[in-house]
Write a structure and sequence with these properties.
362 residues, elongated, 2 helices, Immunoglobulin-like, 3 domains
Protein backbone atom coordinates (compact mmCIF):
# COMPACT_ATOMS: atom_id res chain seq x y z
CA UNK A 1 0.00 0.00 0.00
CA UNK A 2 2.80 2.39 0.91
CA UNK A 3 4.50 1.66 -2.42
CA UNK A 4 1.38 2.70 -4.30
CA UNK A 5 1.18 6.04 -2.39
CA UNK A 6 4.84 6.69 -3.08
CA UNK A 7 4.37 6.00 -6.78
CA UNK A 8 1.42 8.43 -6.99
CA UNK A 9 3.33 11.27 -5.22
CA UNK A 10 6.33 10.68 -7.50
CA UNK A 11 4.19 11.07 -10.60
CA UNK A 12 2.58 14.28 -9.32
CA UNK A 13 6.02 15.77 -8.52
CA UNK A 14 7.33 14.99 -12.03
CA UNK A 15 4.23 16.57 -13.66
CA UNK A 16 4.56 19.70 -11.47
CA UNK A 17 8.23 20.23 -12.28
CA UNK A 18 7.58 19.78 -16.00
CA UNK A 19 4.85 22.43 -15.89
CA UNK A 20 7.08 24.89 -14.03
CA UNK A 21 9.86 24.48 -16.57
CA UNK A 22 7.41 25.17 -19.41
CA UNK A 23 6.14 28.30 -17.58
CA UNK A 24 9.66 29.56 -16.99
CA UNK A 25 10.38 29.07 -20.67
CA UNK A 26 7.24 30.99 -21.64
CA UNK A 27 8.08 34.12 -19.52
CA UNK A 28 11.88 33.97 -19.77
CA UNK A 29 12.09 36.73 -22.40
CA UNK A 30 10.22 39.19 -20.10
CA UNK A 31 12.37 38.77 -17.00
CA UNK A 32 15.04 41.42 -16.27
CA UNK A 33 18.00 39.60 -14.65
CA UNK A 34 18.88 42.42 -12.24
CA UNK A 35 15.26 43.62 -11.64
CA UNK A 36 13.36 46.74 -12.86
CA UNK A 37 14.62 50.12 -11.52
CA UNK A 38 11.92 52.64 -10.57
CA UNK A 39 13.12 56.13 -9.54
CA UNK A 40 11.38 57.67 -6.54
CA UNK A 41 8.02 59.17 -7.50
CA UNK A 42 6.91 62.72 -6.68
CA UNK A 43 5.20 63.29 -3.33
CA UNK A 44 2.16 65.38 -2.33
CA UNK A 45 1.35 66.61 -5.84
CA UNK A 46 -1.41 69.18 -6.12
CA UNK A 47 -3.12 71.31 -8.75
CA UNK A 48 -4.10 75.01 -8.89
CA UNK A 49 -5.65 76.98 -11.75
CA UNK A 50 -4.99 80.37 -13.26
CA UNK A 51 -6.77 81.90 -16.24
CA UNK A 52 -6.20 79.28 -18.95
CA UNK A 53 -3.23 78.03 -16.95
CA UNK A 54 -2.49 75.14 -14.60
CA UNK A 55 0.13 75.14 -11.87
CA UNK A 56 1.36 71.81 -10.50
CA UNK A 57 3.35 71.59 -7.27
CA UNK A 58 5.01 68.62 -5.59
CA UNK A 59 7.81 67.51 -3.31
CA UNK A 60 10.72 65.86 -5.14
CA UNK A 61 11.09 63.03 -2.62
CA UNK A 62 14.31 61.57 -1.25
CA UNK A 63 15.70 59.73 -4.32
CA UNK A 64 18.97 61.57 -5.20
CA UNK A 65 19.14 59.94 -8.65
CA UNK A 66 16.02 61.74 -9.90
CA UNK A 67 16.94 64.63 -12.23
CA UNK A 68 13.65 65.66 -13.80
CA UNK A 69 9.94 65.04 -14.04
CA UNK A 70 7.84 64.59 -17.14
CA UNK A 71 4.26 65.88 -16.99
CA UNK A 72 1.69 64.47 -19.42
CA UNK A 73 -1.85 65.60 -20.22
CA UNK A 74 -4.43 65.20 -22.97
CA UNK A 75 -4.09 61.42 -22.74
CA UNK A 76 -0.29 61.57 -23.14
CA UNK A 77 -0.56 63.70 -26.29
CA UNK A 78 1.16 66.67 -24.62
CA UNK A 79 4.03 66.76 -22.17
CA UNK A 80 6.76 68.96 -20.67
CA UNK A 81 9.97 68.16 -18.79
CA UNK A 82 10.58 69.87 -15.46
CA UNK A 83 14.10 69.95 -13.91
CA UNK A 84 14.31 68.62 -10.34
CA UNK A 85 17.60 69.77 -8.75
CA UNK A 86 18.76 67.74 -5.80
CA UNK A 87 18.80 70.83 -3.54
CA UNK A 88 15.23 71.82 -4.39
CA UNK A 89 12.66 70.04 -2.24
CA UNK A 90 9.59 71.79 -3.64
CA UNK A 91 9.05 71.81 -7.41
CA UNK A 92 6.41 73.54 -9.50
CA UNK A 93 5.57 74.11 -13.11
CA UNK A 94 3.01 76.24 -14.94
CA UNK A 95 1.32 75.02 -18.10
CA UNK A 96 -0.07 77.86 -20.19
CA UNK A 97 -2.54 78.24 -23.07
CA UNK A 98 -4.95 75.60 -21.84
CA UNK A 99 -8.59 75.56 -22.81
CA UNK A 100 -11.16 75.91 -20.07
CA UNK A 101 -11.74 72.27 -19.17
CA UNK A 102 -11.11 69.50 -16.64
CA UNK A 103 -7.65 67.92 -16.91
CA UNK A 104 -5.81 64.92 -15.49
CA UNK A 105 -2.03 65.43 -15.32
CA UNK A 106 0.33 62.45 -15.02
CA UNK A 107 3.74 63.05 -13.42
CA UNK A 108 6.65 60.64 -13.79
CA UNK A 109 10.22 61.15 -12.58
CA UNK A 110 13.34 60.16 -14.56
CA UNK A 111 17.00 59.63 -13.76
CA UNK A 112 20.04 60.08 -16.03
CA UNK A 113 19.86 56.43 -17.11
CA UNK A 114 16.37 56.84 -18.48
CA UNK A 115 14.58 54.92 -15.76
CA UNK A 116 10.98 56.09 -15.22
CA UNK A 117 9.01 56.08 -11.99
CA UNK A 118 5.50 54.88 -11.42
CA UNK A 119 2.98 57.62 -12.37
CA UNK A 120 1.30 60.07 -10.02
CA UNK A 121 -1.98 61.62 -11.16
CA UNK A 122 -3.43 64.99 -10.18
CA UNK A 123 -6.62 66.48 -11.61
CA UNK A 124 -8.49 69.78 -11.66
CA UNK A 125 -10.53 72.25 -13.68
CA UNK A 126 -8.75 75.05 -15.54
CA UNK A 127 -10.59 78.38 -15.36
CA UNK A 128 -11.14 80.39 -18.53
CA UNK A 129 -13.27 83.04 -20.21
CA UNK A 130 -16.54 81.35 -19.27
CA UNK A 131 -15.62 81.62 -15.62
CA UNK A 132 -14.35 85.19 -16.04
CA UNK A 133 -17.58 86.27 -17.74
CA UNK A 134 -19.52 85.00 -14.71
CA UNK A 135 -17.69 87.39 -12.35
CA UNK A 136 -19.49 90.56 -11.29
CA UNK A 137 -17.93 93.75 -10.02
CA UNK A 138 -18.59 94.70 -6.44
CA UNK A 139 -21.75 96.79 -6.25
CA UNK A 140 -20.95 100.45 -5.70
CA UNK A 141 -22.97 103.63 -5.22
CA UNK A 142 -21.04 106.78 -6.25
CA UNK A 143 -22.33 110.16 -5.06
CA UNK A 144 -21.15 113.74 -5.68
CA UNK A 145 -20.75 115.86 -2.53
CA UNK A 146 -21.39 119.60 -2.20
CA UNK A 147 -17.64 120.27 -2.48
CA UNK A 148 -17.57 118.21 -5.73
CA UNK A 149 -15.61 115.37 -4.18
CA UNK A 150 -16.94 111.87 -4.87
CA UNK A 151 -17.99 109.37 -2.22
CA UNK A 152 -18.33 105.72 -3.26
CA UNK A 153 -20.07 103.24 -0.98
CA UNK A 154 -19.66 99.50 -1.58
CA UNK A 155 -21.80 96.58 -0.52
CA UNK A 156 -20.14 94.66 2.33
CA UNK A 157 -18.31 91.48 1.28
CA UNK A 158 -19.38 88.19 2.81
CA UNK A 159 -16.61 86.47 4.79
CA UNK A 160 -16.93 83.38 2.56
CA UNK A 161 -16.59 85.35 -0.68
CA UNK A 162 -13.68 84.84 -3.09
CA UNK A 163 -13.54 88.62 -3.65
CA UNK A 164 -10.11 90.02 -2.76
CA UNK A 165 -10.12 93.65 -3.89
CA UNK A 166 -11.49 96.07 -6.47
CA UNK A 167 -9.82 98.80 -8.49
CA UNK A 168 -11.29 102.07 -9.69
CA UNK A 169 -9.55 103.83 -12.55
CA UNK A 170 -10.59 107.48 -12.95
CA UNK A 171 -9.54 110.79 -14.47
CA UNK A 172 -8.44 113.52 -12.06
CA UNK A 173 -9.15 117.24 -12.33
CA UNK A 174 -5.62 117.52 -13.79
CA UNK A 175 -6.52 115.01 -16.53
CA UNK A 176 -4.32 112.31 -15.02
CA UNK A 177 -5.49 108.70 -15.05
CA UNK A 178 -5.33 107.35 -11.50
CA UNK A 179 -6.14 104.02 -9.89
CA UNK A 180 -7.38 103.47 -6.35
CA UNK A 181 -7.52 100.02 -4.73
CA UNK A 182 -10.36 99.00 -2.42
CA UNK A 183 -9.70 95.93 -0.27
CA UNK A 184 -12.60 93.61 0.45
CA UNK A 185 -12.88 94.85 4.06
CA UNK A 186 -13.24 98.51 2.98
CA UNK A 187 -16.81 99.69 2.37
CA UNK A 188 -16.36 103.33 1.30
CA UNK A 189 -13.82 105.70 -0.21
CA UNK A 190 -13.57 109.43 -0.91
CA UNK A 191 -12.01 110.76 -4.13
CA UNK A 192 -11.33 114.49 -3.81
CA UNK A 193 -9.80 115.10 -7.23
CA UNK A 194 -12.35 113.38 -9.49
CA UNK A 195 -13.06 115.16 -12.78
CA UNK A 196 -16.83 115.54 -12.77
CA UNK A 197 -18.46 114.64 -16.07
CA UNK A 198 -15.91 111.91 -16.81
CA UNK A 199 -16.49 108.17 -16.45
CA UNK A 200 -14.58 105.68 -14.32
CA UNK A 201 -13.68 102.02 -14.81
CA UNK A 202 -13.97 99.31 -12.22
CA UNK A 203 -12.55 95.79 -12.04
CA UNK A 204 -12.69 93.23 -9.24
CA UNK A 205 -10.18 90.53 -8.26
CA UNK A 206 -11.30 87.08 -7.11
CA UNK A 207 -9.24 84.25 -5.62
CA UNK A 208 -11.13 80.94 -5.88
CA UNK A 209 -9.97 78.16 -3.59
CA UNK A 210 -8.66 76.20 -6.59
CA UNK A 211 -6.68 79.12 -8.07
CA UNK A 212 -3.02 80.07 -7.69
CA UNK A 213 -3.57 83.65 -8.88
CA UNK A 214 -6.38 86.20 -8.85
CA UNK A 215 -8.95 86.09 -11.63
CA UNK A 216 -9.96 89.61 -12.65
CA UNK A 217 -13.40 90.59 -13.88
CA UNK A 218 -13.73 92.55 -17.11
CA UNK A 219 -13.58 96.34 -16.84
CA UNK A 220 -16.94 98.08 -16.55
CA UNK A 221 -17.46 101.77 -17.22
CA UNK A 222 -19.68 103.90 -14.97
CA UNK A 223 -21.10 107.41 -15.04
CA UNK A 224 -21.78 109.35 -11.84
CA UNK A 225 -25.23 110.96 -11.87
CA UNK A 226 -26.28 110.92 -8.20
CA UNK A 227 -25.83 113.54 -5.49
CA UNK A 228 -25.09 112.88 -1.82
CA UNK A 229 -28.57 113.11 -0.28
CA UNK A 230 -27.13 113.23 3.24
CA UNK A 231 -26.09 116.81 2.50
CA UNK A 232 -29.54 117.91 1.34
CA UNK A 233 -31.94 119.89 3.50
CA UNK A 234 -35.68 120.43 3.49
CA UNK A 235 -36.12 124.14 2.75
CA UNK A 236 -39.93 124.25 2.93
CA UNK A 237 -43.09 122.16 3.23
CA UNK A 238 -46.86 122.49 3.48
CA UNK A 239 -47.32 120.38 6.64
CA UNK A 240 -46.50 117.07 8.26
CA UNK A 241 -48.19 114.74 10.70
CA UNK A 242 -46.56 113.70 13.98
CA UNK A 243 -43.08 112.27 13.11
CA UNK A 244 -43.84 111.83 9.39
CA UNK A 245 -41.63 114.78 8.44
CA UNK A 246 -40.67 115.69 4.84
CA UNK A 247 -37.07 114.79 5.77
CA UNK A 248 -38.23 111.17 5.34
CA UNK A 249 -38.46 111.93 1.60
CA UNK A 250 -34.67 112.25 1.36
CA UNK A 251 -33.48 109.62 3.88
CA UNK A 252 -32.81 106.99 1.19
CA UNK A 253 -35.56 104.65 2.40
CA UNK A 254 -38.92 104.47 0.56
CA UNK A 255 -40.37 102.49 3.47
CA UNK A 256 -40.31 105.59 5.71
CA UNK A 257 -42.92 108.23 4.94
CA UNK A 258 -43.84 111.87 4.75
CA UNK A 259 -47.50 112.39 5.64
CA UNK A 260 -49.40 115.67 5.77
CA UNK A 261 -51.97 116.72 8.32
CA UNK A 262 -55.47 115.51 7.47
CA UNK A 263 -57.16 118.94 7.88
CA UNK A 264 -54.91 120.24 5.11
CA UNK A 265 -56.02 119.75 1.51
CA UNK A 266 -54.30 119.61 -1.86
CA UNK A 267 -51.94 120.92 -3.10
CA UNK A 268 -49.21 119.70 -0.72
CA UNK A 269 -45.48 120.32 -1.22
CA UNK A 270 -41.95 119.97 0.06
CA UNK A 271 -38.81 121.81 -1.14
CA UNK A 272 -35.29 120.37 -1.26
CA UNK A 273 -32.11 122.46 -0.96
CA UNK A 274 -29.17 120.75 -2.72
CA UNK A 275 -26.70 123.14 -1.05
CA UNK A 276 -25.30 124.42 -4.37
CA UNK A 277 -26.62 124.81 -7.88
CA UNK A 278 -26.93 121.50 -9.73
CA UNK A 279 -27.79 120.73 -13.32
CA UNK A 280 -30.68 118.29 -13.08
CA UNK A 281 -31.72 115.83 -15.78
CA UNK A 282 -34.44 113.76 -14.07
CA UNK A 283 -36.50 113.38 -10.90
CA UNK A 284 -37.65 110.22 -9.10
CA UNK A 285 -40.52 109.57 -6.70
CA UNK A 286 -41.64 106.52 -4.72
CA UNK A 287 -44.82 105.90 -2.81
CA UNK A 288 -44.33 104.65 0.74
CA UNK A 289 -43.41 101.03 0.10
CA UNK A 290 -44.52 98.36 -0.01
CA UNK A 291 -48.25 99.05 -0.33
CA UNK A 292 -49.42 102.51 0.76
CA UNK A 293 -51.81 103.90 -1.89
CA UNK A 294 -52.40 107.29 -0.23
CA UNK A 295 -50.09 109.06 -2.66
CA UNK A 296 -51.14 111.64 -5.26
CA UNK A 297 -52.42 111.11 -8.78
CA UNK A 298 -50.52 114.10 -10.17
CA UNK A 299 -47.30 115.90 -9.24
CA UNK A 300 -45.55 119.09 -10.33
CA UNK A 301 -41.84 120.03 -10.24
CA UNK A 302 -40.55 123.59 -9.85
CA UNK A 303 -36.95 124.85 -9.76
CA UNK A 304 -35.43 127.90 -8.07
CA UNK A 305 -32.11 129.54 -7.25
CA UNK A 306 -33.38 131.56 -4.25
CA UNK A 307 -36.30 129.52 -2.88
CA UNK A 308 -38.58 132.43 -3.70
CA UNK A 309 -38.97 132.58 -7.45
CA UNK A 310 -39.74 129.21 -9.04
CA UNK A 311 -39.74 127.97 -12.64
CA UNK A 312 -42.48 125.49 -13.57
CA UNK A 313 -40.92 122.28 -14.92
CA UNK A 314 -44.20 120.55 -15.70
CA UNK A 315 -46.97 118.36 -14.30
CA UNK A 316 -46.70 114.55 -14.41
CA UNK A 317 -48.89 111.57 -13.47
CA UNK A 318 -48.00 109.52 -10.41
CA UNK A 319 -49.05 105.86 -10.05
CA UNK A 320 -49.84 105.51 -6.35
CA UNK A 321 -50.52 101.78 -6.84
CA UNK A 322 -46.93 101.01 -7.87
CA UNK A 323 -43.98 100.51 -5.50
CA UNK A 324 -41.46 100.99 -8.33
CA UNK A 325 -39.29 104.06 -8.76
CA UNK A 326 -41.14 106.52 -11.00
CA UNK A 327 -38.71 108.55 -13.10
CA UNK A 328 -39.49 111.89 -14.75
CA UNK A 329 -36.99 112.85 -17.44
CA UNK A 330 -36.55 116.51 -18.35
CA UNK A 331 -36.51 117.32 -22.07
CA UNK A 332 -33.22 119.15 -21.38
CA UNK A 333 -31.18 119.56 -18.18
CA UNK A 334 -31.98 122.56 -15.97
CA UNK A 335 -29.77 124.18 -13.33
CA UNK A 336 -31.22 125.05 -9.90
CA UNK A 337 -30.30 124.96 -6.22
CA UNK A 338 -33.85 124.31 -4.97
CA UNK A 339 -36.45 121.87 -6.21
CA UNK A 340 -40.08 122.01 -5.10
CA UNK A 341 -42.28 118.94 -5.47
CA UNK A 342 -46.02 119.68 -5.41
CA UNK A 343 -48.76 117.07 -5.07
CA UNK A 344 -51.66 118.39 -7.13
CA UNK A 345 -54.50 115.98 -6.38
CA UNK A 346 -55.22 112.53 -4.98
CA UNK A 347 -57.85 110.27 -3.39
CA UNK A 348 -57.53 111.76 0.12
CA UNK A 349 -57.34 115.28 1.45
CA UNK A 350 -53.90 114.44 2.88
CA UNK A 351 -50.95 112.77 1.12
CA UNK A 352 -48.45 110.04 2.04
CA UNK A 353 -45.21 109.50 0.07
CA UNK A 354 -41.97 107.55 0.48
CA UNK A 355 -38.87 108.94 -1.26
CA UNK A 356 -37.46 111.53 -3.69
CA UNK A 357 -34.25 111.62 -5.71
CA UNK A 358 -32.69 113.31 -8.76
CA UNK A 359 -30.03 112.58 -11.37
CA UNK A 360 -27.55 115.30 -12.21
CA UNK A 361 -25.43 116.15 -15.23
CA UNK A 362 -21.84 117.35 -14.73
Amino acid sequence: MNNIKYLIWSCLWIISMTSCKKMDSTYKEYVVPSGIVYPGKVVEANFKSGLNEAQLNWNRGSDPKVTKARVYWNYYKDSIDVPMPIDQSNVSCTIKDLEENFYTFIIKTLDDDGHISVPVEVSGGVLGERFKSSLSNRTAAPKVNIDNSVSITFTPVNSTSDLVKSEIEYTSVNDQVKTVTIDSNVNSILIDDYKLGSTYKMRTYFMPETAFESIVSSDETYTITKLNKQEWKIAGYSSFYNTDTPAKMIDGNPATRWGTLSPHVYPHFFTVDFGVQRTLSSFSLWRQTPSNEEGPNEVQFLGSDDNINFVDLGNYPFNRQSSAEQIYQLAEPKTFRYLKVRQINGPKAYVVMGEFDVTAKF
